[in-house]
Amino acid sequence: MSEAAPAWVAEGVRAVIGAHVQAQDAGRTDDVVALYTPDGVLEVPGMDPVEGHDGIREAFKGWAPTRPQLHVVTNTVVTSAAEDEATAVSDVVFFLRAEPGWAPQLVGRYDDTFRRLDGAWLLRRRRTTYQA
């Protein structure tokens, strides 16, 4: 994108990304689901795409934390922005806490597509890739 995204778009996108990882790490599945459009799609390596609120809910229930975890999202760049649609790319590091302390488990990237519905930014599609 040659021009910077409007500040209100970038702030809305970053707020959804932050709310998502905080809810996910706390095991608040319904809060995660509420951040997706009803036709939202989640793509994770090694899985078929997960579609819609029911599918996303089942996926995140299965991933509910059994010990402390933390997704650290950084380097978010809004790559396109319009009044009701935006895309962004973010880097993510996933940590688990065990007996010796926090340890990184995965490094990856989120490629997100957002749609604004009733004034709120929501995820329309999240494609996660892992870095080797």
Describe what you observe in this structure.
The chain is 27% helix and 49% strand. The chain is built from 3 helices and 6 strands. The protein has helices at 7-26, 29-33, 52-62, and strands at 36-43, 50-51, 69-81, 85-98, 101-117, 120-130. The two termini are 27 Å apart. The mean pLDDT is 95.
Please summarize the sheet with the most strands.
6 strands, mixed
Uncertain residue ranges: none
Q: Nearest-angstrom radius of gyration?
A: 15 Å
- Which range best describes the helical content: under 10%, 10-25%, 25-40%, 40-55%, 55-70% or over 70%? 25-40%
Output the helix-strand order: HHEEHEEEE
Structural class: alpha+beta
Mean pLDDT: 95
- Please state how the strands of the largest beta sheet are arranged side by side: 2-1-6-5-4-3
Based on Cα principal axes, name the global outline.
Answer: globular
Report the β-strand fraction as a percent range: over 45%
Question: Treating each run of at least 4 consecutive H or I residues as one helix, how many helices?
Answer: 3
The tally of strands reads: 6
Distance between the termini: 27 Å
Would you summarize the structure shown here?
With 132 residues, the chain is α+β, with helices and mostly antiparallel strands. It has helices at 7-26, 29-33, 52-62; strands at residues 36-43, 50-51, 69-81, 85-98, 101-117, 120-130. 27% of the residues lie in helices and 49% in strands.
